[in-house]
Amino acid sequence: MRMRILGLDIGSKTIGVACSDALGITAQGITTIQRKTAKDDWQRLQALATERWVTRMVVGRPRHMNGEDSENVKQIEAFITYLKRQMPAMEFVYWDERLTTMMARQVLMAGGVRREKRKQFVDKMAAILILQNYLDAQGNTLL
């Protein structure tokens, strides 16, 4: 069985989650986790990783257009450090997520999703874009 990859868009209130197909070609949206505690968040991610045979997580790294890290990178790095201690066999990769939230909003608008509904889908869509960009850059040589 081929392993899959999770894509994560980590925010202060939610975590958008996407998963690759078994061939590492496409990303599909899975869920948006409402953040509670680091332990609760880890347990949700662990359950998703276990049920989908995930061996790698691609984590969106927010950056400004000039390439500098945004303000919330430190919180994301602290959470990933915690996850690495809880899941030592898991590989974590940071991926530049510049403009993914804006692109996610545009995709949802183009798809006819009403403004009041977009908020509940934007983090999951951003995770899809992060993971798909990563998969495309790897040229299907991942697994």
TrEMBL record:
Keyword annotations from UniProtKB, A to Z: Cytoplasm, Hydrolase, Nuclease, Ribosome biogenesis
Primary location recorded for the protein, binned into one broad class: cytoplasm
Gene3D superfamilies (alphabetical): YqgF/RNase H-like domain
SMART domains according to UniProt: YqgFc
EC numbers: 3.1.-.-
Top-level taxonomic group: Bacteria
Location(s) in or outside the cell: Cytoplasm
YqgF/RNase H-like domain location: 3-104
Family under the similarity heading: Belongs to the YqgF HJR family.
Function per UniProt: Could be a nuclease involved in processing of the 5'-end of pre-16S rRNA.
PANTHER family referenced in this protein's UniProt entry, alphabetically: POLYNUCLEOTIDYL TRANSFERASE, RIBONUCLEASE H-LIKE SUPERFAMILY PROTEIN
Protein name: Putative pre-16S rRNA nuclease
Organism the protein comes from: Megasphaera lornae
Lineage: Bacteria, Bacillati, Bacillota, Negativicutes, Veillonellales
